[in-house]
């Protein structure tokens, strides 16, 4: 079934003469955003093992902060589009918004994102001039999650007793495919919106009891939970000058014990938990004179104004949102899932929340190594997704014969060719839909990337 959701933004306000009308659950909310029915699980993404790790000749390793919104801005998106702000609370509150007497629903109870550090843009050597010569995590590199940082606005009533401590609860998951905590789902019929009929994305389960990221099954890794405690002293902790998010509250927490196998993704969800014991289930979070109940305002980045975001097959970076029980009641088709930004039937502003991931990789090359020192460069596969065949191209710094292999998720070689002209073509007509890996090997080096088969 289809679900109506609130578009929360300036100019999209549920108008009313007083807050009491909206405290009633039967209030008339502005609900002009529709969400597609729950997507289908793509069981061809069923990874019970990770591919054999490739390597570069020079593997220097190190740590790096990853933020998909920063990446979009670096590649030309307008940073002024960081206007998406959503009230978040663990209660069904409503909030005063704007200069009129209107009130908006506090509909968001949790948000999150999936990070794909191996996407082509994250590993573009041109980033060296912007962020310095940092690590480039590829599909063949295992890595660790060290820290999470969250940006937004901590809204605290100045009269709140100092003993009241609110919490931002961060829940971390990783995986890639069926039987993991990050399965791959898909929508069909998306050509008009995203330029592809089938849109695939990594999904995060929702634990409806704890209101955080959920676990796929008993055999999947445990969800790692860390708390960020907020009191009056934290109200003025903000991102500094030079940040794309300067002036927003920025809170971080260290993460240990999250070791992510090669070829897998990492995701995190964030949930606000009020430390006050006297917050009613239905009430106004703000009044025309200020903050009434403590809450969090999550900030999102909208890639394009009044248009759908860019979809790139094989790039698994995605923003996710979870709504309160008013919009997501028991029995709803999205119950138990976070809603990805690709799910909406019209363009929305809440696409990518502002979340940083600090990753460490001891076996990764540096960005400039890919560009300068590597023998194998400009590796690409097209079309991606592939239907009848896939063309793999590459460049070699030194004249040599390269071996190009296509493997499945468990590392089994399905096809192999030798070439010296920088181009090979493989038939994919007999391959099942799903993710495959291709490896170019020459001069003692390997470069491994993935491509999608979609008939």
Summary keywords:
single chain; 455 residues; mainly beta; 7-stranded antiparallel β-sheet; 6-stranded antiparallel β-sheet; 5 helices; 6% helix; 39% strand; globular; disordered N terminus
Description:
- The protein is mainly β.
- It is 6% helix and 39% strand.
- The chain has five helices and 32 strands.
- It has helices at 20-23, 68-74, 128-131, 191-194, 367-373; strands spanning 3-5, 33-35, 40-41, 62-66, 84-88, 92-96, 103-105, 108-115, 143-155, 166-175, 184-187, 199-202, 206-207, 212-213, 224-230, 249-260, 265-273, 282-284, 286-287, 290-291, 295-301, 318-323, 339-340, 352-353, 355-361, 376-382, 389-396, 402-407, 413-419, 423-427, 434-442, 445-453.
- Strands 4, 5, 9, 16, 21, 24 and 25 form a seven-stranded antiparallel β-sheet that branches. The chain has a six-stranded antiparallel β-sheet with strand order 15-10-17-8-22-23, with no helix packed on it.
- The longest helix is centred in the first third of the chain and has 7 residues, at 68-74.
- Mean pLDDT is 80; it is low at 1-32, 48-57 and 97-101.
């Amino acid at each position: 079934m289809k679900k109506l959701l609130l578009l929360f933004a300036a100019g999209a306000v549920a108008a009313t003469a007083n807050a009491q009308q909206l405290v009633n659950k039967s209030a008339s909310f502005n609900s002009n955003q529709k969400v597609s029915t729950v997507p289908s699980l793509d069981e061809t993404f069923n990874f019970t093992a990770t591919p054999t790790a490739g390597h570069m000749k020079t593997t220097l390793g190190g740590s790096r902060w990853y933020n998909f919104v920063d990446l979009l801005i670096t590649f030309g998106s307008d940073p002024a589009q960081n206007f998406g702000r959503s009230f978040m609370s663990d209660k069904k509150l409503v909030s005063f918004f704007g200069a009129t007497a209107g009130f908006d629903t506090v509909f968001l109870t949790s948000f999150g994102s999936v990070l794909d550090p191996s996407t082509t843009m994250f590993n573009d050597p041109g980033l060296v001039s912007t962020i310095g010569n940092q690590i480039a995590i590829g599909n063949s590199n295992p890595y660790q999650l060290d820290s999470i940082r969250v940006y937004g606005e901590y809204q605290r009533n100045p009269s709140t007793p100092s003993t009241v401590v609110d919490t931002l609860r961060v829940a971390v998951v990783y995986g890639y495919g069926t039987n993991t905590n990050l399965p791959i789902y898909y929508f069909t019929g998306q050509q008009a919106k995203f330029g592809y009929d089938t849109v695939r994305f990594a999904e995060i389960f929702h634990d409806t009891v704890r209101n955080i990221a959920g676990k796929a099954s008993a055999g999947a890794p445990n969800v790692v939970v860390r708390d960020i405690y907020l009191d009056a002293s934290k109200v003025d902790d903000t991102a500094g000058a030079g940040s794309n998010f300067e002036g927003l509250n920025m809170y971080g927490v260290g993460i240990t014990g999250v070791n992510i196998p090669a070829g897998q993704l990492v995701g995190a969800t964030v949930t606000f938990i009020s430390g006050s014991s006297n917050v009613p289930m239905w009430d106004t979070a703000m009044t025309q004179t200020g903050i009434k109940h403590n809450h969090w305002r999550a900030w999102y980045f909208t890639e394009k104004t009044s248009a759908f975001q860019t979809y790139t097959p094989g790039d698994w970076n995605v923003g996710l949102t979870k709504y309160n029980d008013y919009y997501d009641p028991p029995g709803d088709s999205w119950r138990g899932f976070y809603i990805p930004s690709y799910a909406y039937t019209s363009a929305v502003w809440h696409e990518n929340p502002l979340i940083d991931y600090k990753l460490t990789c001891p076996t990764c090359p540096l960005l400039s190594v890919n560009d300068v020192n590597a023998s194998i460069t400009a590796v690409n596969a097209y079309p991606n997704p592939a239907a009848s065949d896939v063309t793999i191209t590459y460049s070699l710094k030194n004249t040599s014969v390269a071996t190009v292999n296509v493997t499945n998720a468990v590392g089994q070689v399905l096809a192999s060719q030798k070439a010296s002209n920088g181009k090979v073509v493989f038939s994919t007509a007999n391959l099942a839909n799903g993710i495959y890996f291709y490896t170019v090997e020459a001069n003692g080096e390997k470069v491994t990337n993935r491509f999608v088969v979609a008939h």
